[in-house]
Design goal:
Layout: E1 4-8, E2 14-18, E3 36-37, E4 41-43, E5 46-47, E6 51-52, E7 58-61, E8 64-66, H1 68-79, H2 92-99
Antiparallel strand pairs: 1-2, 3-6, 4-5, 7-8
Length: about 100
């Protein structure tokens, strides 16, 4: 069976796309194509890697995206005296994902 995706247009319309375009966005109630992975560090050099669409990938620094849950954690950290975000641990792989988002 062919997977289908739901894309929300900027004008409020909905578009359905069918075909194997990769993972669906893992954000709650979203079925869009993912073009990003959450870069939030989870320890031992690993990142969250939750697949995200452009609407749910929050860029906290150049080429560094957090999922909605980790964005809340990041904002709480900053509000309590935290500093700037870490650099992107995946480098070229994330840049490739960013460049291919939405294509």
């Amino acid at each position: 069976m062919m997977p289908c995706y739901i894309e929300r247009m900027k004008n409020g319309d909905t578009m359905f796309i069918c075909g194997d375009l990769g993972a669906h966005c893992a954000a709650e109630h979203c079925a869009a194509v993912s073009g990003y992975l959450c870069d939030y560090p989870v320890g031992e050099g690993l990142t969250c890697d939750l697949p995200l669409c452009a609407s749910h990938a929050y860029e906290v620094a150049p080429n560094l995206h957090y999922c909605p849950a980790h964005l809340l954690m990041w904002n709480a950290f900053r509000e309590h005296g935290g500093e700037k975000p870490p650099t992107n641990p995946r480098g070229p792989a994330q840049r490739w994902a960013d460049a291919n988002a939405g294509s």
